[in-house]
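For homework, think about our next protein:
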Amino acid sequence: MIELEGVCRGYGAGPPALQDVTLRLARGETLAVVGPSGSGKSTLINLLAGLDRPDAGTVTVDGIRVDSLSEAASARYRRSRVGLVFQFFNLLDDLTVTDNVTLPATLAGMARTTARRRAAELLERLGINRLAQSYPGRLSGGERQRVGVARALINRPALLLADEPTGALDSAAAADVRGLFADLHAEDQTIVLVTHDLTLAGTLATHTVKLLDGRTVAPEVTE
């Protein structure tokens, strides 16, 4: 499902953000990427999402050479193959929960009625269907993160990328979101998590990779 081969990425004159990173992940597995701030975790997510390109090496996701896509093709790839979950939710405050969730589907050309039906299914599945017409500013952190997950899943992505999904949550909401990701993993959703949450990594991931100064250190299987 995911193959990175000899990936390097640098910015300016400083040390590379990633240095000779090689990893593979099968469909239905969950990879946790851990490491200190500045170790290259977010760069890795950006490369998998097609938001950035490596200086060397190859990035292949679901049979697609992501590193060789044009900007337009990268945007189509993200809409059709990738769901993104962010630490600070990135919801639009002037849109309702339903409209936030359906936005990626609308951009991908899904019919409005189909998108709203799919959003309703996801909100019910995630236990927040009662909030469909609410606005993000009136939601708790845990509720906003569930909306973010619903938005990421609206186009049935092959790959779910989550950048610190519990990082902005209190302990109770973080535990709730851990349970949600465990459910997604049990349903064979392929997931890559960037996280400082060792409980999330330890209980959910089939594989854990630690990044330090842009290099992988002691990858380990946790199941």
In short: The first helix runs from residue 41 to 48. Confidence is low (pLDDT under 50) at residues 219-223. Strands lie at 2-9, 18-25, 30-34, 56-61, 64-65, 82-85, 159-163, 190-194, 207-212, 215-221. The first strand starts at residue 2 and ends at 9.
